[in-house]
Amino acid sequence: MSNSDLLPAAVLRRKAVVYVRQSTQTQVQTNLESQRRQYDLVEEARRRGFAQVEVIDDDLGRSASGMVARPGFDRLVAWLCAGEVGAVLCFDASRLARNGRDWHHLLELCGLVEARVIDLDGVYDPCRPNDRLLLGMKGSISEFELGVLRARMFEAARAKAHRGELRISVPIGYIWHREIGLGFDPDIRLQETIRLIFERFRKLGSARQVMLSLAADEVHFPRPSDGKKMVSFEWTPIRYRNVISVLKNPFYAGVYVYGKSEKRTTLVEGRLRKSYGHGKPLDQWDVMLRGHHEAYVDWAEFERNQKQLAVNAYGRVGGAKSGRGGRALLAGMLCCGRCGRRLVVAYTGRGVPRAVYRCDRPNLMLAQPRCFTFGGRRPDEAIARELLRAVEPLAIEAALQAERRHMEVQADQRRISELELQQARYEASLAERRYAACDPDNRLIAAQLEKSWESALQRVLACEQRLTTVEQAQSVEKPNLAGLAEDLSVAWNAPGVTMRTRQQLLRTLVKDIVADVDDTTREVVLTIHWRGGQHSQVKVIKPRSGEHGCRTPEDALAVMRSMAGKWSDEHIAATLNRMGFPTGQSKTWTARRVGSTRMVNDIRAYRSAHKDGEWLTMSEAAAALGVNNHRIRRLIKAGILHAEQVVPRAPYQIRASDLQDQRVVEAVSRTDRPCRAEADNQMSMFSST
Q: What is the pTM of this model?
């Protein structure tokens, strides 16, 4: 040991710190010689005269680039600030830091407390300018070395990726073969599941609907059970993230992609932090090789899927609401003809809410008046009629195609169930062979293998029952789609047809609808933009304020007016029911409903109800003659006073002019007792004496 390497007694009284670090967990597990040489620095510290030696190995598996936290290095800095450290021992400068900030901060602290830095090349005193210069150069070289290594690795990987030879991690459904390279996973069940996701999306047009459809069919999706190796899988119920990951991954379209995400660096609590996995736009991907490998779908279909998924994200600029059900047929399809914004749907009323379309974005965002508002029932019915009229020529062909799709869906369900049963039987046979190969005396292992065999047999039984259920459901008579095509209105209004189905059919044929309100004619003008580029216009009368949709049809009111003066409410209700006229709420007629409707529409059942003086009731006639009702009834029965009845037992209706008849006047003017005819042979009850 030279004189320059001798340490002062004040430094030796303090403790020496041996800092041990390796960059990755792989190095910790495999580079054992480097780790052992760093721990040997403890003997070097004792040889230099230190009695107290501390080892800091908290940072094993952590990078020194400054992007990750290093608790061991922070503890070393804390001891230096407290003046407890006499020397810091490291294998080389790169073990302490790979960035200038941490390295120069450490040297500054060592210079303040007169601590030494010791490596395999010698002892350095940061207080001396020459040593400080040499240590600074070593830190800069360490930082530069890290940059060079990273640049070489990244450039090599990028060059290999440009040729499509870099073996990146592939999604489920693909595998790197040792001889032929990249190709389909040999598991047929796995391939069929992925193809089924794309096929369902072609029909349903929504990732969530695909997930619900597959979940209803009890379709499972593979989940890696061995981490990132992706060699063995566990089949679990399908989730939404499984569906969306398949639909959005260009790898399934035969495209080799590299560099589709980026890392971002932020400053957090004075230290740089890197985050990975931030997606980049398609035009900024580093490598994109089309036709690189076998594909589940072509590139054109992949682009259509991305557009459909973007459109389904309602609320974005240019997006449209997908058919998700509700009570409004045109939800998300209407655009304002004045400001260009999309109309929103509001529901009003108690009980069964009614849909109302309105353009209130200017009111919400700019405090401006609403463009217009109109009810949704009449426009929905008008667009539905226009839609049925447009598809009527193709109804039979569409019915045949729907029948073919129905058969394809049934075939897919049966095929998936058969593959699942086949795999369950294989796993059961494998469990049986493992149990048979086990030593029966080793009960600890035999019991576990027997339990696994029993579980596999239960899965086989469940798959057999599921396949039987599918076959029984498919053996039921298939729906008569050709018959429904002959009457589209019945098929459209069938109880089994949901609003979601109607909305999806509308979005298949219609791109969007521009709505406006003509205030002069009180009409809602709907301009339909069809998918084929054609345009048509529909006009609907806008209801007035207070006018509701439960009005009695005018035809029914006409029949009621013609029969009200001659027939009772019971007869009118029976006639309306026979003619097929419903009430305003689509109910059948009763005498009570007829009476209520007459009262609302001012339809009088009797002519005497019109207070014009021409016809009088019996009470009004009695009041006009100054007698009671009993006297008027006797005159009517005697035929002296003429009266009319609509039906037997109905109230009497008396013409006012008939009260001036001479016979009526004379009968009313008689005030003596009633004239009775006496028999000649009748004896008096009382004698004359």
A: 0.55
